[in-house]
Amino acid sequence: MTVKEIFETMDYGPAPESAKEAFAWLAEKGDFGHFINGAWTAPGDLFATVNPATGDTLAQVTQATQADVDAAVKAARKAQSGWAKDGSARARVLYALARLLQKHARLFAVLETLDNGKPIRESRDIDVPLAQRHFYHHAGYAQLMASELPDRAPLGVCGQVIPWNFPLLMLAWKIASALAMGNTVVLKPAEWTPLTALLFADICGQAGVPPGVVNIVTGDGAVGEMIVAAEVDKIAFTGSTAVGRRIRAVTAGTGKALSLELGGKGAYIVFEDADIDSAVEGLVDAIWFNQGQVCCAGSRLLVQEGIADDFHARLRRRMDGLRVGDPLDKCIDVGAMVHPEQLDRVRALVDANTDGDMHQVPVPDGCYYPPTLITGLSPASPLMGQEIFGPVLVSTTFRTPAEAVEIANNTAYGLATSVWSENVNVALDIAPRLVAGIVWVNGTNMMDAAAPFGGVRESGFGREGGWEGLTGYTRPAVAMTSPAAVAAHGGDATGDGIDRTAKLYIGGKQARPDGGYSRAVHGPKGKLLGHASLANRKDLRNAVEAMNGASGWGRTSGHQRAQIIYYIAENLSARADEFANRLQDLTGKDGKAEVAASIDRLFSAAAWADKYDGQTKGVPLRGVALAMKEPVGKIGILCPDAQPLLGLVGLMAPAIAMGNRVVIAASEAFPLAATDFYQVLDTSDLPAGVVNILTGMHADLAEPLARHLDLDAVWGLAGHAQMIEAASAGNLKRTWTGPFDPSADMTRDILGHATEVKTIWVPYGA
Amino acid sequence: MSPTKTEDPHLPRNPGRPLDMDWVMRTQANTSAIERRAATLPGRRSVKKDYQAAWLCKAISLIDLTTLAGDDTDARVRRLCAKARQPVSAALLDTLGMQGLTTGAVCVYHDMVPTAVAALAGSGIPVAAVSTGFPAGLSPFHLRLAEIGESVAAGAQEIDIVISRRHVLSGNWQALYDEMSQMRAACGQAHVKAILATGELGTLRNVAMASLVCMMAGADFIKTSTGKESVNATLPVSLTMIRAIRDYHAATGIHVGYKPAGGISKAKDALVYLSLIKDELGHRWLQPDLFRFGASSLLGDIERQLEHHVSGSYSAGWRHAMS
Fold it and tell me: Of the residues A17, A112, A122, A261, which is catalytic?
């Protein structure tokens, strides 16, 4: 076209970013081996990595063998203690990595776009700058670790498996935090997108990363499984919920730390008082960012009924302006899907849908999927629940704020949501009620190294970013051990006095066990002390239902919860002698100290109830990112045998102080301390259903508890760790299997298990 | 190529409509989100090579070449008009195949209107006059209306009026509507551009609401600034105003024009504005009857970029005729 013709059409025309330097780098490197112990291994069994936009092979990379993984883990192990020694030295290396990422920014961006298919605008303006920021930010944590986290130590060697949607950025999230805290890593990039990880390996030498600190092996899911099975101290995984669930199951009982950042189906809620055009524009960044291949994508649009038609019309108009095509073109909004397999997956999901009305934008031939809007769906439509992981937005309507929350939370996932309203009252009321790790008020897909990122429910657990993210890469510097299990005493068939059978405590009432069984409880010399009910899975079910009836507990104020916990302490104190005698009868040990310590634990928890504050994060934005502490929800607790009162109180008190509801399986050996204790709860104004107490055999209760899909966490502190962690994979509930020593005041640490961090982003501007 | 050639002659003027306060009050403008959209726009759109040259020529065709200085003289205005007729050297335009390119209009104070009209005779380039006690708009109302009449009588085809900012700041939308309606009436056949002086309106929501009220009262164009405020045209303000234009079009079918003024001095900025208009309002708005740049130094930068496009060498200011 001539200038004059373009003057009339005002078309954008091609604006290609040059890939010359990236191809030169690939040519120079040739076939890739792995990066192990600071050096490249010889290329082995090769497979191709392909540019999805053209179908051209970019490079050949090596499928790792077991020997490769072993060598990488060995190198990481060897390097770890030296690397952990000096935080300042680590800070310098992380700073150098940040600088090198910056110096080679365009090469990283072009390579990312070639390998992944994402628009160059995104790799250049978002992925690479955020990766740099992550290393800069974490250089600071390395520097500050000694002074600010004196009681934390590195975990050791971390196995890290990352996805193909943000190859470099996910590498940065994983490696920067691990390295900052003195860990060494073995990382596997996704098989479809290994190239920026290999370029990163290349710059590690320039940055002065000591050999063995960063090891990068390539290959498919089989290599991921080798890493998961290797002698590592932690597995950090970002990817699909199905794989995350498998990792949870196979690492069960190994003692490996685990963080999972999995799928999502984020709600994007638009109230009628929102800035509609801005909310429409926000969707471009919510669901058409990175072709919708984003775990925290705003993929479920919920619009208030009165504005729905207008909103959808504006949205369709905006969609028609999206430019889809060559990812290297600087004027492209939506690029290529990462791989034809992913394209087929998305197409199959959408093709199977028959509900609603669909609007699509035309796309070029090739590995492209049209930006798609499907309106008129209901929560029952399959596409409202399935994670599509493509540029497909599904939409439904709501009537009231309460209904918006209800629909938003009607999902197995809980990663990120957006709330659009110009009314600060509405937005800030909704944000805490959404079941999600991240809430963006009047925005979407905001991320920063200082702001914790991660999900709840089946979106996984653990946080990345901020001080909170460091917890996942450290352990207590002083190791603690759980006391050994204690067996129940056997003894006489009959006792003196009036026969007493302790019942279960469910929903604020004493309840007979569903199974109708009980067992005799004896003192150390064989004296029959009474009978304790044997709870079964149905009693557990009833307890969870009672907990659902007490959902208001999480919304009470910390002050109010403290008052109730102090009152429990007061009432226990009033019956201290009776409890001391009971403990003496049960365990044969002097019970006075245990009662006193239990009262002390209640005071500790009450003290913390209104002081375990969240943080305001210094994110690069005019606004605030609030890292709020929220209760985990409903927790199942299996108490240790020894110190039956102190164990129960030491776990229960911090849990309820943070607003959780609990079902507690009391000490199996000495259950009668717990059944006496519910009488104390009864007189302390604790709402019914907040604390439920079961007695019985832990072997019978642990599995149904870990498998219950309506419990959010299980604390298994009486053994059975392997089984509990494996069974918890069903709904990916958080697990804590100790160590827990009742005689130590671990309240402060337990608060971490009792809370989730929710990051609420509130940008503002008059 | 006169700027009127690409106009759709059938596009009706904005007749205005009754003030709809429900509509005005329901308008929202989330400053933070608007700023984010504006901040990322330059990274999302790019035009290169011949396309860039064509877009820059388009930008020239949309410039209201402006002088609004206390020391303006007849000779100075004639020089400006000559530049409007021949904004780029004939040799460059020949190479580009863009012979006959002119700016969109010339914009002057009332006293300079006759000079400009004479200097532009036969070119088809309209003369725009700033009016109504420009830039503060605080002279007696009857004099402001009279000033419009005088400028129209002197041959101005376009009148850039200033609104009373106090009506916006005090929420007196009816007063703003009435003022604008009377000014529109005083313009007669001349097109009226309503200068909102957005740098003095305090919030983007005020900008959005004032935009709507002025359109309801019959403005043919809404314009950001006088160029005399401390903050003039910005991308966030532009996004806010053109979204209001889009709303008005969606509700009434009427096309209202947009003129960012002040602070746009680089060719690159002009390209960003054009892509903003293209993406948010559509291709139809990239014509001089619906879009203008109020600018004085922008043209010089565009000339240098065009020479660079043709020659491959970076240009110098002195190589291009001054206005």
Answer: A261
pLDDT of res. B73: 97
| Catalytic residue annotation of B | 160, 223, 259
The one-character DSSP state at A123 is I
Contact check, Cβ <8 Å, A765/B35: yes
Q: Which of A295, A296, A367, A639 is catalytic?
A: A295
Which tens digits make up the pLDDT trace of A305-339? Answer: 999 999 999 999 999 999 999 999 999 999 999 99
Strand ranges (DSSP E) for B49-136?
63-66, 105-108, 127-130
Contact A157, A186 (CB under 8 A): yes
> Does residue A581 carry a pLDDT above 70?
yes
Q: Which of A149, A746, A255, A759 is nearest to A470 (CA)?
A: A149
The minimal CB distance from B34 to the residues A6, A278, A766 is found for: A278
pLDDT for residue B189 is more than 60:
yes
**Strands A152-154, B221-223: pairing kind:** unpaired
Residue ranges of domains in chain B, CATH in brackets: 21-35+48-307 (3.20.20.70)
Other beta carbons less than 10 A from residue A707's beta carbon: 20
CB contact under 8 A, B32 and A442: yes
CB-defined contacts A:B, below 8 A? 105
> Could you tell me if B281 and B248 are in contact, meaning their C-beta atoms sit under 8 angstroms apart?
no
Determine, for residues A125 and B29 on separate chains, whether the beta-carbon distance falls below 8 Å: no
What is the number of residues in chain A? 766
User: Using CA atoms, how far apart are residues A579 and A647, in angstroms rounded to an integer?
Assistant: 14
Interface list for chain A against chain B, based on CB atoms closer than 8 Å? 1-8, 10-15, 121, 124-125, 273-279, 281-282, 321, 330-331, 333, 422, 442-443, 622-623, 763-766
Burial profile A333-372: b = 16 or more Cβ within 10 angstroms, e = fewer: bbbbbbbeebbebbeebbeebebbeebbbebeebbbbbbb
- For residues A262-294, b (16+ Cβ closer than 10 Å) or e, as one string? bbbbbbbbbbbbbbbbbbbbbbbbbbbbbbbbb
Closest residue of chain A to B201, computed from CA coordinates? A766
Q: How far is B53 from chain A (nearest CA, A)?
A: 7
The alpha carbon of residue A129 is apart from the nearest alpha carbon of chain B, in Å, by 14
Q: What percent of chain A has pLDDT over 90?
A: 98
Asked if this assembly's ipTM is beyond 0.85, the reply is yes
Cross-strand partners of A616 = A626
Helix (H), strand (E) at residue A756? strand A755-763
pTM over 0.95: yes
Model confidence at B1, pLDDT cuts 50, 70, 90, reads very low
Q: Are A111 and A199 in contact (CB under 8 A)?
A: yes
Kindly state the average pLDDT of the residues B53-59: 98
In the predicted structure, residue B3 carries a pLDDT above the cut 60:
no
How far apart are the C-alpha atoms of A629 and A395, rounded to whole Å?
30
Tell me which chain A residues have a C-beta less than 8 angstroms from the C-beta of B28. Answer: 273-276, 278, 422
Does B37 sit within 8 Å of A278, measured CB to CB? yes
**C-alpha distances in Å from residue B154, one per residue of A566, B77, B162:** 87, 15, 19
